[in-house]
Amino acid sequence: MFALEEINNSSTLLPGVKLGHHIHDSCSLPAWALQAALSLVGGDMPSCNSDAKYEEEKGIGASKGDQPVPLIIGGCNSVTAQIVSRLLVPLSLPLVSYTASSPSLSDKQQFPNFFRTMASDVYQAHAIAQLAIKFKWTWVGAVVANNDYGLMALKVFQEGIQRAGVCLAFVETLQRENIASDAKRAALAIQASTAKVILVVTWYTDAMELFLQLEKLNVTDRQFLASEAWSTSSDLHQSTFSHKVASGVLGVAIRSSTLPGFDTYIRNLNPSLRPNDHFLKEFWEKEFGCSPGIATASPFASLPPCNGTESLWAVNNLFTDTSQLRVTYNVYLAVYAAAHALHYLLSCPDVNSSPGRNITCSFTNQIKPIELMEQLSKVNVTTPQGEAFNFQGADITAKYDLVNWQSSPEGQVQLVLIGLVNGFDLHLNESAIQWSTGSSQVPVSVCSEACPSGTRMATRKGEPICCFDCIPCADGEISNTTGSTQCVHCPSEFWSNAERTACIPRQLDFLSFNETLGITLTAVAVSGVTVTIAVFVVFLYYRQSPMVRANNSELSFLLLLSIKLCFLCSLVFIGRPSVWSCRFQQAAFGISFVLCVSCLQVKTIVVLAAFRSARPGAEALMKWFGPGQQRGSVCFFTSVQIIICIFWLSINPPVPQPDLEIPGLKVTLKCAMTSVVGFSLVLGYIGLLGCTSLLLAFLARKLPDNFNEAKLITFSMLIFCAVWVAFVPAY
């Protein structure tokens, strides 16, 4: 009514045309709304001259006589809007709703005649999902109405959170017909759940029943996220349990606006000035306890008459509070959208279509609903409040307020604006929020606490991804952030610290003379050298004795020398490897062993030759194995190994290199064999001499017992070959 009076008093919008109104109360029942719509489009109403037919279910449009209205403002909820819109589709008659928010109404294929000044629920559900993501609430419970409003909002919310690591702890539905039992079941689910943040998408009466059940269970530590259907309900935030159960509610609300002059308009209302307004008469009787004297049927017929001094200027209640107009502003926009569509439809085609000119040249024609619907889809104007307004299909640009229930110093709960939603964009003043705890500390709602550094998340079988265990990173892996889903391998030169939070350089390790093993090996080597020298001295002292001379003293001395070198070459493997020590290790190792095995082999050959020459006809055999030939054979066998070592160490020698393939903080610095061929030749040659010596000694095993050296050589070479076979693959 206020919007219509503004338009009728405007000199720029619909000049020369006066709009009236006709209101039907649908009582939020689709059947009543359907009946009202049928009466409006059928012309079954008192005739009016240039009147608007306007309904709660409101019909608006210029008409004459009993002509049907060309446009209806109504559909107080999504179900009603869908029913009425489908009814009006064959007539191509537009329906403009101010509270129907179902996303399905955006489908122009199903509802080509539908428009609304209320945003689709897609945007508020997306905004709530953004809040959950922003405050890192990964474990959220949901209580929704068991209808299109609640289930569709839940679906959009789930789509918004599924890629952000947010999970639903539980989902409970509320059926209005069974609200008592459903609310009790939902309250028990909230009490049993570890989720501290609860999304509630339902009508405010259902939310009230839910909070009453929570109060009975003494559940007071939950943070509630509210949909627009109850976030601004005075029945809720002014209730006795709001402080205890529902403090700190964070909700999405229909955007609020102010209408200049509306407060004065409301407070100047008086039944004496509007004798046909039955609603105002009933309100007057209930508010002031007196009858304004209008002769109409009234439930307060026994009341005394009013004295005429009653005024709404002294009344402060929800009816007179115009500080936050939400649905009211949507109705206001709907009326202005219809008025602008009428204005453009009634405009003369040969004159500029901007408001402000006389449009009566078109008024004699009947208004066709389909033409009005076309003009409505083209509306693109600026409202008296300076806001750009246009329809995008059936919808307008989504705008919401973000409100917070905060306790005032007087102990009352008041709504505080803490942010805005513009389309899919969220603008939030976090410092202005008062949470359910009564502080500015954001509540935590997680199934599992974020894994600390040094661990990774491991999901639990059969549970949502938000529920997980924290497993320490394996050796050589780290995680340096909280909530890591996987551990990262350290580079080969680094290893994880004890806490598995950082990669630290690996410590070089090598066999040193200072550690126990190095000291032990050195002591054994020195002891072996000492014993060998002692034997050498004894042999040298008794070198002229028959026993020493019969034992081939020169080969014995060379053998003792080679054994001493074998003991000493082990010392080269102790200490930090360097380029030259790596080369010398292999040369000393290869040549010392070849010298030792060569002496044994020549000894064996000499023994065999000596006993073979004792046979008839073989006397000349020993001349090929005299002292010179024996020394020459040892030198020859050894020189082959020297040549192999020279070529190997000249072309591709071993180099000091850390063994990074073996896990651990300490990495062994060793001489890496860059040439497998060279090393194989060195080992293979030693093995060849060892096998040859074993074979020759085996052939000499049956010599007379008084000369048992061949047997001892056979036993020694057997042990040598066995060790060699085990050593090569182990090395």
From TrEMBL:
The chain crosses the membrane at residues 517-542, 554-575, 587-611, 632-651, 676-700, 712-730. It is found in: Cell membrane. It is a multi-pass membrane protein. GO terms for cellular component: plasma membrane. The keyword Transmembrane helix applies. Residues 517-731 form the G-protein coupled receptors family 3 profile domain. Keywords: Cell membrane, G-protein coupled receptor, Glycoprotein, Membrane, Receptor, Signal, Transducer, Transmembrane, Transmembrane helix. Its main location: membrane. Pfam families: 7tm_3, ANF_receptor, NCD3G. One of its GO terms (molecular function) is G protein-coupled receptor activity. SUPFAM superfamilies: Periplasmic binding protein-like I. InterPro entries: ANF_lig-bd_rcpt, GPCR_3, GPCR_3_9-Cys_dom, GPCR_3_9-Cys_sf, GPCR_3_C, GPCR_3_Ca_sens_rcpt-rel, GPCR_3_CS, GPCR_3_vmron_rcpt_2. Belongs to the G-protein coupled receptor 3 family. This is G-protein coupled receptors family 3 profile domain-containing protein. It comes from Crenichthys baileyi (White River springfish).
